[in-house]
Design goal:
This protein is α/β, with parallel strands linked by helices. The protein folds into two domains: 179 residues, 3-Layer(aba) Sandwich (Rossmann fold), CATH 3.40.50; 188 residues, Glycogen Phosphorylase B (Rossmann fold, 3-Layer(aba) Sandwich), CATH 3.40.50.2000. It contains 17 helices and twelve strands. It has a six-stranded parallel sheet with strand order 2-1-3-4-5-6, sandwiched between helices. Helix 3 runs parallel beside helix 4, helix 10 packs parallel to helix 11 and helix 10 packs across helix 15. The chain is globular. The two termini are 23 Å apart.
């Protein structure tokens, strides 16, 4: 059990009986954010976690680990886990947990997760997620794109099996269990760092929540923020090559390159850092969340170059801080962002950034048309309470 969760429970004289068991094999990033929200705001939850390291080994072995780590508890009624966990293995190893209402949450799906070469795709990870769906009672996706891409890829994925393919239509078994429940953003900690003129309308007592409007400001250089994991699926090559083109054209801009780093950092970052040095304000993840949100608040534009995105927490947090979003016209983005914030090609991206660098006041005076409130914990809390009811 993670020390934070354990210490909180031990400090209570008479904790309520635990009814919801939360399991997270990859306790970091959005996985951690979701588990922390559920633990903090829903009653009768107990959480068991493993550090966000060695993702592939977590997917392979965490079922065995949790089967031995979680003590029996007759009070449990619901089990909630992310799709990193092989729920099928856990249910076989722990029949007492198999009897619970089992909720499987997909932050991503391995059937369409991008790989550099299709032959490099490890069939087992997607196969494990399919097996987990078969034993789950509810299968929940953070976006319609995530759910639709998983369900539409299921049959082609299983057709890769050379023989002894499942004779039954697994799609017919899994689809009825599926639903979309957006990832809940905890926006309160963002709001308290915003100046009054950038707060959502609801903070001033209005009935309708609208995204903040960035006030017009002096013609200082455009501040671009890229707040994504430093991994190949976020396409840092496109991002950095575009920044170098802006630099080579003599355009003025400021750059904050944030996001988590892991063991294998793409070489583009170290190669391009010296070339972009005159434009860099921040380079690397910020450990302090308040400092991270402060940088988002100061930025003008948030950029995604992702080749994989099933929801996009960082983009929505930046928009809530008043950043103008630019996203690919693909993946989950058309589900969340109006067409004016989407680009179809690298050439379109470069053209739009070129115009914004030339006239940053157009970005700062723009009224954002993205309703972040519909993804807030306050709005989604009831749906999660219902999901985690026995």
């Amino acid at each position: 059990m993670s020390g934070r969760h354990a210490s909180r429970m031990e400090s209570q004289a008479a904790p309520p009986p635990a009814r919801v068991l939360l399991l997270e094999p990859f306790y970091g990033g959005s996985h951690k954010q979701l588990l922390d929200l559920l633990s903090a705001h829903l009653d009768s939850c107990v959480a068991f976690t493993a550090p966000a390291k060695k993702w592939h080994w977590r997917a392979r072995t965490s079922a065995l680990y949790f089967s031995q780590k979680v003590p029996p508890n007759p009070g449990y009624r619901v089990l909630f886990c992310s799709s990193v966990l092989n729920l099928c293995e856990l249910a076989a190893l722990r029949p007492d947990l198999a009897r619970l209402k089992k909720v499987l949450y997909f932050h991503e799906n391995q059937l369409v997760y991008p790989v550099r070469k299709e032959q490099d795709r490890d069939f087992q990870y997607g196969y494990n997620q399919i097996l987990s769906c078969l034993v789950a009672d509810a299968v929940v996706f953070n976006s319609a794109f995530n759910m639709d891409s998983f369900l539409s890829s299921l049959s082609p994925f299983l057709n890769k099996i050379p023989d002894l393919r499942p004779p039954q239509d697994l799609l017919a078994l899994i689809r009825p269990k599926c639903q979309v429940l957006h990832f809940p953003l905890h926006l309160a900690d963002v709001d308290r760092l915003l100046p009054t003129n950038k707060l959502p309308a609801a903070a001033h007592g209005d009935d309708v929540i609208t995204p903040p409007t960035r006030p017009d400001s002096p013609e200082t250089a455009l501040h671009i923020v890229w707040p994504h994991r430093w991994e190949h699926d976020k396409d840092p090559q496109l991002f950095l090559s575009t920044m170098l083109k802006l630099k080579d054209e003599g355009l003025d801009f400021r750059l904050s390159v944030l996001g988590e780093t892991f063991t294998d950092v793409p070489e583009e970052f170290s190669r391009c850092r010296p070339l972009l040095e005159p434009h860099v304000l921040h380079w690397g993840g910020l450990a302090c969340r308040e400092r991270y949100l402060e940088v988002l608040r100061q930025a003008d534009l948030v950029l995604s170059t992702a080749r994989h995105e099933f929801f996009g927490v960082a983009m929505l947090e930046a928009v809530h801080c008043g950043c103008y979003p630019l996203c690919p016209k693909a993946l989950v983005y058309p589900e969340i962002f109006p067409a004016e914030y989407l680009y179809a090609t690298p050439q379109q991206l470069l053209k739009r950034l070129r115009n914004f660098c030339t006239q940053p006041r157009h970005v700062r005076a723009h009224t954002l048309k993205v309703d972040t409130s519909r993804f807030s914990w306050d709005v989604l809390k009831g749906a999660y309470q219902s999901l985690l009811s026995p």
